[in-house]
Amino acid sequence: MNLFVKDAGFDANVWDDALFMDLLDRYGNSTDPDEQNELMRGMATRVVQEVISLFLPGPKEFRYAWPWVRNFYGESNSDYCSSASLMAITWIDQVMKADMGY
Prior knowledge:
About 40% of the residues lie in helices and about 5% in strands.
């Protein structure tokens, strides 16, 4: 949520919204996980409602795979700097691949 805090260093939107800041302050002061989840949901909903940014992929960030590659959703890594563990959960649907003529 730091992307949406005025003057936080990441605020490319230069967005200043009293409702969002109230929810963020309440989130920071809460120790109840259920209340924090509701407050986070409220902040996310507010950002989407206000449409303050359009997040588009950069040219080097497009990810795609053949349709028969299963359990891959475009991740570039699965931890801080590696994609090695993604290979353990990604698999090839050999039947679909054959049905498509490959």
